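## Example record

The block below lists the input lines for one assembly entry, exactly as stored, with component labels intact.
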Amino acid sequence: MIVRILGEGQFKVDHEASAVLDQLDTELEAAIDRGDEPAFSAALSALLGHVREHGESVSPEHLGPSELILPPEGSSMDEVRKMLSGEGLIPG
Amino acid sequence: MGVMKRVSLVFKAKANKALDKMEDPRETLDYAYQRQLENLTRVRRGVADVATSRKRVELQMNQINQQATKLEDQARKALGMGREDLARSALERKSAAQSQLVGLQEQFAQLQGDEEKLTLYSQQVQAKLDAFRTQKETIKARYTAAEATSRINEAMSGISEDMGDIGMAIQRAEDKTAQMQARAGALDELLASGALDDLTGHRDDIQAELDMMSASSDVESEMRRLRGEISASQQKQLEGGANGGQPQANAQPTQYQAQQPQYQPPTALPVSDLPVSDVEDGTGS
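Predicted structure tokens for the full assembly:
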């Protein structure tokens, strides 16, 4: 499965690692729902760290979409909320 | 549905919109390539802007460092003159300058990190763009409607995702640069206002008071010297000795010379020498 970290690039992640990602993603979402910024930051860092550690960088030759997309490192909760509403995205 | 999935759906929706609009997929590939080229330029400009911000912060750090050193010198001088109040006020300002410095150091580290990340990212965008340029020609050459459409769709979805990604990276870099510039501007204003003491080289109030004190102590020592001279010559006259004049006349210039550098700028000598040599040259030729 291909996962993109915005501002970093695409990574190939195997099935095992993606299960952990799902779990971390659930934490991330819960933090956003609660409006809990520290928990959000921690969950995001953990997610990004997991992808970098277990994922394999995809060659720039590959031209294809990603199954999952992660917000860039250091994003605030507000930025991610905007991202989810499609704000600030340059259309292709 | 998780955040990661939702973000990717937002990107896919954008990509689909772009794909729906295209009539001849081959033209779309060219158009997307052009757009990516423009994006690359913007990413590079973003890197340059971040570098400019970093340099500005560095400059401010240097200014404040100089100021802290100067304030400590002033405090030392003031203490030497027994002015504890002045020394205290100089040290208070030094500590205010240092707390600004801590903030600037954090900003500097952050900007350095941003610059590195963005540089790396722009290299990646460049590599991707190079790959895209060759692939799009292959796709176009092999283009037979049905067969190529799915491949073009796949490539276009990827490219569209890249574009959204780059667009967002550019936006973030620009926002951050604007924020940094605002902060740097505010600090420049603070520095200019003299709240942290002047950094422009003109005199500040602590320096003015120190100068005044050292000037008045200079006057006092001059007074003492003159009084000494007068009483010495009076004594000479009273003694009426003609042979006693010689050693005393020798002793006086040495005392005077020792104080001389404080009153006379050293440049006075070479400058007054110049016209003389000019005149000599004129008569010689």
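The interface with chain B takes residues 3-4, 6-9, 21-22, 25-26, 28-29, 32, 47, 59-73, 80, 83-84, 86, 88-92 of chain A (CB under 8 Å). Chain A has a mean pLDDT of 88.
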